[in-house]
## 1
Amino acid sequence: MTLANAMLRYCSPRRLVLPLLLLLTLLIAGCGGEAAAPPTPLADGVAPVRGEALPGRLLFVRQGVIWQWRDREARPLFGDGTAFQPAWAPDGTRIAYVARANSFSEVLLADASGRPLAQLTDNGSPAPPNSIDRVYTSRWAFYPAWSPDGIRVAVAAQVRPPTGDPPVDESLELVLLPITTGAPLPVYADPAAQVGRSVFLPDGTGLIFTRAGSGPAGQQALYRLDLSSGASEAVSGAPAGSYDPARSPDGRWLAFATRQGGRTDIAALPLAGGTPVRLTSQGAARAPAFAPDGRLLAFLAVAPGEPGFDLWVTELQLGADGTLSAGAPRRLTSGLALDADSGLSWAP
């Protein structure tokens, strides 16, 4: 049964979930680049990647394992095949991420080394795996995003288990999870739509989030939510077909993936409003992330003739007239088939 266009699919008794726009991993890009240096196997057989030096610590996901690019090398940080969608806390000391299991997913916390700290959701079920009882007593949560003060995490989550026969999942809502004490707080819901990845505004008073309507005409778009009033509206200047929002460290720019004419690239526009500018031309690029100093933009893209996503970076330049532009993209990995829906997260 189909819910939101290109968002989630389910089957019973075990629901198979395709998170927001996971099908875009099948796109083919149109711009080449330099491949990373040949890897040297680690003792456990996993190959690190070595290349150019990057500032800070950049997280990405491969086969359910969270990797970290630090200085000139990327290697697995933690995960057993079930870890996805990592997000650094604002102070860079903790990582929120999603752990997927049979018929449900949880939002967890780890420290900067990957050591477990806490579980923020309780979506699982004691019912046997693959059973119909498990479907009716479990829920999903995706896309953790930290508030600027580091005391809560926004997620796209099901507030209630499935209902009906056959089971139909509740739409994904925006929910705020407290890091220490308190109850989860739903802040946005629309039974005719699904929500996806979000990012807090610089002052923490609202969120930019991805919303997709239901039905064949449903299309993802970026919306702005005011947390004090609950009012929401489409982000001015962001075209339909936009998703994967990312905010610059100085709070001035919003980068996002946008799909136009069968091609997907990274664009940006001022958070205060304005006209979007295109930053990439690969034709199959998504998951932007700003470097901690705002001078680089990382993203995931598919190279011509290849089946999966790899990591790329580009230099950002701010013109005298206040316009943003990007230099020639540089490819940092080759053939890793990274998980595009997990995106990227960059911390000092």
## 2
Amino acid sequence: MSNLKERLWNILSSELTFQLILIGTVFSATAYDEHTYGDVKAKLSLFTSYVVASLIIGYILLPRFFYPKKYLAFGLYLLLVIAVVMLVEEEVLEKIFYPNSRGTDFPGVFHTLLEILPPILILVSFKFAWDAQKKQNQLEELNSMMAESRLQFLKSQINPHFLFNNLNNLYSYALADSPKTKHIILELSSLLRYMLYDAQANLVPLEKEIQCLMDFIQLQEMQVESRGKVEFNIDGKAGDQFIAPLILVVFVENCFKHSTSSQAEGIEISIQLKITPGHLTLNCRNTYSSNTNTQELARGIGLENVRSRLALLYPDAHVLDISRTASVFQVQLDLELDRAQAEPPQETSTSRRDPDPFN
């Protein structure tokens, strides 16, 4: 937590320094223009209104409307901000400092518009460039972390122990001529295909991520069987919403891993998923034995990785709460799906599963 706070402070302090230097430079360049008049106090008051407007545009309108491509709302709010700045300058500041200099007729208003636009445009342009550079850095870091995440997840699943257990159970079902055999093959095939191909995208349909979750849980349930019980409930529908891939399954994997590895019996795993438009809540609860080595329970590589991915993909749009008692480990993730910092992929007509799972 201290490292995260230090990192956030470094980001904020560097951007604050950048903004202060930029504001000082622009003020110095505009305050002594031969076409401006009045004393420094008046010019500072006028420039302050420009700075406030640029901060509103740069830190509220850009992230909330322009970057999510809500251009109409952005344009309307932008015009409103400019109109308010003009109104404050014409009806308040100019009447205080220059009561007899300019009127409020059309030429005066047009002159005010030409006066306020350049400094605001310069300040907002530099903020836009700063965000673009920061986004590029985050994208490079995210690509690296996505590659690491996929590698770590595949290494944890596609290993002799995982395949041996599932193939052994599959063999048992096949010997008993169980109708579940073909469903197990399909689930394993679907899970591996999703991890290898679909999860390459920055965002995937929420429905596919949930199906991956269901396939994973059904395969892991075979490891529990008579040793305990597994409960999985979904409240709501995925619809056409998107989510970053392999986010939810990390928490579910930890449920099974720490329960099955530390308990011979009495396993209790509860996974609750609630979906509403634009929002998702995942609650994972599992029992574990305190007699086993659980010191790193909340600090595994997978959890650290998913924390970092959430911070990059859903900044200020998620809450992750991890708690632990002597026998219960619980994770709750609240996610604002419509505020992901990535573009959803284009829809394709490809079905979720091929008729032949081995194609």
## 3
Amino acid sequence: MRIRAAVTLALALSPLVAQAQTPPERQPIGRRELERAQDELVSRRKYEAPVKPLKAAKLREAIRDFQANDYKAAPMHLTYGEFVTASGYYFVAMHFDAALPADVANATLFGTIDDNWSMEEPVTLQRAADGTAFYERSLPLKAGNHNATFGFAVNGEPASMISVPMSLRTLDKATRGVSRLLVAKQVFPLDKVQAADDPFAFGGIKVVPEADLTFHKNDELWIFFEAQNPGVDESGAPKLTTNVTLEGNGKTKRGLAGDAQPVALKGVPGHFGVGTTVDVSRLTPGEYLLRVSVEDAVAQARYDLLEKIAIVE
């Protein structure tokens, strides 16, 4: 079933992207026109970095005290990744989640990056399959090393927070490489056209990162990454080989993943999505190092993607 799920991903990408490029009740448009329209939409968005301090004094004080290890809040989890649109617009996709009460539908996302950027905005929370509250958005951050602190506030009170260093890679549309590794429980087709900078959306397929990196033995654990400008053969197809190992409890497990074939992401030339599932049903509970080794046979390049995960009953 898990290998069949990987095949389903590959089959789902093509028809959904074709649907995404032909909006209902409109005349078909070419790929370049679509890319241009999407990137123009991105450029119109109000992504200028706020420089004014947070409006709420309670939130300012919470960040100050949290950074000094003098403020207690439930943990927030953060997954982020650097991407570029077809025209080279650089953005950082971000996924925030926290175990907030089930009756909480709205919150305030607040945060600071370094000492010159802050945000405070009301958000509508989504719920993952396990009930975890999450919110996603993309930000036009600059490459480099940053210190970030974010939180969810409910009814004006900081409820969950995280403080984390962010090392953002330099990336443009000519860069060759692979994205950060995403691990997820939810991967599904989108039912509407995605914007060029929608977070963790890949050619009609949505990946919901599992930010706390914890999986039950009966979960379907997805791995996903984007390959940008890999080497291609005469047919224009890349030759990527993906090997997955799990190291933990004194053992190394191999052969737990299905076939992971790259699928072209239409609308973003030179970008390919690679996803498959990993069978964790027979693993002993504990912490594991998930290692995904990617070999590009055409470009003669190798990438090692690492993530620490936890398996529970």
